[in-house]
Specification:
single chain; alpha/beta; Alpha-Beta Plaits; 28% strand; globular
Amino acid sequence: MSQIRARGLRKSYGPLEVVAGVDLELDPGECFGLLGPNGAGKTTTLRLCLGLIEPDGGSIEVFSLPVPERAREARQRIGVVPQSDNIDPDFTVEENLLVYGRYFGLKEAEIRARIPGLLEFAGLNGRASSRIHTLSGGMKRRLTLARALVNDPDLIFLDEPTTGLDPQARHLIWERLRRLLHQRKTIFLTTHFMEEAERLCHRVAIMDHGRIIAQGAPLELIRAHIEPQVVEVYGDGAARWAQEFGRARSDRCERAGETVFCYTRDAAPLVQNLETHEDLRYLHRHANLEDVFLKFTGRELRD
């Protein structure tokens, strides 16, 4: 039984259609990633699935319950990590968990029994009595994740959960999210970090201008849409090198700023030639999910 099923989902604000006929389905125990540039409609889609806003068209079911009609009932089994931390600064770490747990009708004794495990999960052992202003940004983000688990949810919404974190904090959160997946929790993730999606997600959907334009397992999307090898060339002479040599020996060449991206099935001729150019720097790598994302959504800056 699907945890979420959305069909023909639509939402407009004035003349702008933010979500334009989206179909989604999440299976139990999977991590599903919704990827897209700023303004693609990702957060609006999450809010629709949570029943926080009314759709203009289509249907949504969460745990087979119609949303938004029975959203409150569905949310009893849901945890949410929003884009921005909204922890109450007037409470301690423990008090934040206690107050949030009461929103789900949990008894104080039950919440207190869960708090040590939640703090261990979030790497906040010994911080129960800490005031929020004493926590680092990474600690606050991990507390927000712990708070989302206070009701032991079956489905967890994560809206850009590692934005602004240093690599150590990001890797810790990834490890904790994998632990949740091993517990058969279902995760609905939005992120701008393609490495995050590639590491965590069983399936991803790429969204742009309110529509799903590609969907599948990360590795399947890479194999289906991108040449297997990529050579990135940097430096003032990169564009000239591409014009004189790179384009003719690549399946596809793209330029972004001072960087040229050469996509190819055989990178050896490119690498051999670049070794003779001391003025150029290059990186030879395998294709990844970011290449797929940029192919579908373009390299232009989005605000």
